[in-house]
Amino acid sequence: MHDLRLAIRSLRATPVVTAVAVVSLALGIGANTAIFSLVNSLLLRALPVKAPQQLVLVTENPAEGISSWTNPIWEQIRDRRETLVDDAFAWNNTRFNLSKGGETEFVDGLWASGGMFDTLGVAAMLGRTFTPADDRRGGGPDGPVAVISYSFWQRRFGGAADAIGRTLALERVPFAIVGVTPPDFFGPEVGRAFDVAVPIGAEPLVRGKESFLDARSTWWLTIMARLKEGQSVEAATSALRAIQPQVRDATLPPDWRPADLATYLKDPLTAVAAATGTSQMRRRYQQPLVTLLVVVALVLLIACANIANLLLARATARRHEWSVRLALGASRARLMRQLLVESLLLAGAGAVAGLLLARWASDLLVNQLSTQANTVFLDLTLDTRVLIFTTAVAVVTALLFGATPAFRAADTAPMDALKEQGRGASSDSRVSVTSALVVVQVALSLVLVVAAGLFMRTFSSLARLHVGFESDRVLVVTVNAQRTEIPAAERLATYDRIRQRAAAVPGVAAAAVSLVTPVSGITWNTRAKVSDSVPLTERQSGSNFNAISPGWLATFGTPLVAGRDVADGDRKGAPKVALVNQAFAQRFLNGANPIGHTVTQNGFFPGPPLEIVGLVADAVYRSLREPVPPTMYVPLAQFDDSRRPAPPNISIGVRARSGPPAHVARGVAAAIAGVNPDLALTFRPLADQVNASLTQERIVAMLSGFFGALALLLAGLGLYGVTSYAVTRRRTEIGIRLALGAAPSGVVRLVLARVTVLVAVGVAVGAGLSVWAATFVATLLYGLEPRDPATLAGSAAVLAAVGAIAGWLPAHRASRIDPAQVLRDA
């Protein structure tokens, strides 16, 4: 306690140094804790369920970790689960519409098998969870039931106890609420949280005749199991593979080609450990998060070097104090202990402030990850792992910036220090230490600035990418006819009437219908065979697919290069036609004119040959990062998927004449309601859809840019501090030089020469580190090489400019020293 009181008194004596150190540490430790909180939640934290280490995921591809399964496959595993594992369950993430008609009101939902909650060991906080008895087709003994999450219970019902027993209309189907889950349970998938869970058996009530329960070609369920006591993952894998032939024979899709059936359930079933749950988000953000964790660690190292220099400068003024204490009998160990306590106190204050900053910053980052179509949830509650990480970071940083001053204090010679006190100088060893720390700061800062440049240029390249369509004035309206009385056979005609009504709305320039809109994350693909095509393997013959109405190209602003567009006459009974893009012509015909050729689909959409009547400019299909794929466009009126009727969900693109497309939403909604008021509508500007696809790149660019700027600031402060100290130390020498006739410009050059050397050495070391480290982030870049010379040169120039400014300020001050005053003081 005595050391602690002395440390507090000592830090209060230099409030500016203390404040700068605490703020620097708060930023460094806070940034590290914020990013680690995300890493912990997404990659490390176990599911908040009973014995999560006993959970396994059933997959065909252990490298990917997640596989989708049909319901018939799940039922085969479910019926044999007692011989395989302790228990098993299946689920699918979905979104339920609470609206009774018109514009949608979505909540995040789960289709879950009846045993999910029991298998996970999650008991209801209020009411009960559903059971296998509730998971019957059409509903169990209590009818269709639902379990809601704690957060939804609070939002929707204000935490009222009488929510149990109330009816919740999902997709206009009434479900009785039977339970509320605990606050910490968010579901089996990390990155998502459910609002409402309903049994899989109730799915036909929502989808009707288009139910997935008996569909052997619809892959939509994820399967997880709990191991028996003492059962290993390998034993569970062996048990699954033993029943695989029976599962395969019982679930063969009747509409697959023989060649495709040969690959059906060919890969062996495998159980993989799933204590941390499953996560689509984990695969996408694992590398960016690890990269950012390295970035913030470098920022903390730079901050530590800066604080070490501050404390070394502060130590100069305390050398007389240390000399006296040593002369009076204090041990060197006691002196070192005192300084380390001061360092730990600084680090502790920075860690506390950093924890508060981390909480705010991590919540902000999660909000940035969420989009209109995808709400991201990560459990960021403070746990033991985060506290240990923050404590460890605080201790390590204290040692990093406190060890050098402590050792320098222990090396103090009492008589030498007393003499130095009189003449105001210190040994040159301190200068060499501070110079080395500045070189480290400059080198690490260059690494961060290069990284920021690469990530910001990647985002800029993607944001400015020529996508082949115009998004600024297009509104995407998703129309859901699932819960209407419209017969499946009449859906296409209804969609065409909607298109015509929407196009007639005042302020609308054009409207069109399609199965897929650009950059929606949805992909329809097929295999194509083109007349007179170049030789291709079956894999090379893949093509993306879209079914569009007349006016689609004009609505989205995609140019028609040759031939004609889809026309009103392209209906059933008319000759079947198709349009293809330039990438398609390049792949199948070596870039030759495709018009007049025929294309046959022999994959997902088999059918008669289609005549190619138009060539369309390349446009992004699914992802801005992917090369434009070969794409076929067929008239929606001629669309024929022999395995199911026209889809219940369709997208309508509406192009506004001017201004934001949201301005025409109300008129379009009224026009569609005039066709059928029961249709469910979701509105989203196409520009928002495109921007949402850049979420990862935007966040990485934003954070790396911020940390790069912070590194520049810290490096500049470090250079300024070291140069100012050097000028103060050489004040007498500079005064004598000026008295003997030296020009002020010569003094400036003298001071800047040392700054130039430090920056040059730091840049050289940093350039080597940047070139080495760049390969690790290559997959996160787009449109440039990891070792991009322009980025490296630009970053070095920026750092040199910061160094020049930081050095010029004390150099200019040195050139204005009054020689007479210096000589009098000497």
Describe this structure in words.
This protein is of the alpha+beta class. 49% of the residues lie in helices and 15% in strands. The chain contains 24 helices and 22 strands. The strands form three sheets. Strands 1, 2, 4, 5, 6, 7, 8, 9, 10 and 11 form a ten-stranded mixed β-sheet that branches. Helix 10 packs parallel to helix 12. The longest helix has 48 residues. The protein is globular and about 105 Å long.
Layout of strands and helices, then pairs:
Elements: H1 2-13, H2 15-44, E1 55-59, H3 71-79, H4 81-84, E2 87-97, E3 102-103, E4 106-112, H5 116-120, E5 126-127, E6 145-148, H6 150-157, E7 167-170, E8 173-180, E9 196-199, H7 203-207, E10 222-226, H8 233-251, H9 258-261, E11 270-273, H10 280-327, H11 332-369, H12 384-410, H13 414-423, H14 428-463, E12 474-480, H15 491-503, E13 508-514, E14 525-530, E15 542-548, H16 552-556, E16 560-563, E17 577-581, H17 582-589, E18 598-601, E19 610-616, E20 631-635, E21 649-656, H18 665-675, E22 680-685, H19 686-692, H20 695-729, H21 731-739, H22 744-774, H23 789-815, H24 819-825
Parallel strand pairs: 3-22, 4-9, 6-8, 15-20, 17-19
Antiparallel strand pairs: 1-10, 1-11, 2-4, 2-10, 5-8, 6-9, 7-8, 12-21, 12-22, 13-21, 14-15, 14-18, 16-19, 17-20, 18-19
Helix pairs in contact: 1-11, 2-10, 2-11, 2-12, 3-8, 10-12, 10-13, 10-14, 10-20, 11-12, 14-20, 14-22, 14-23, 15-18, 20-23, 21-24, 22-23
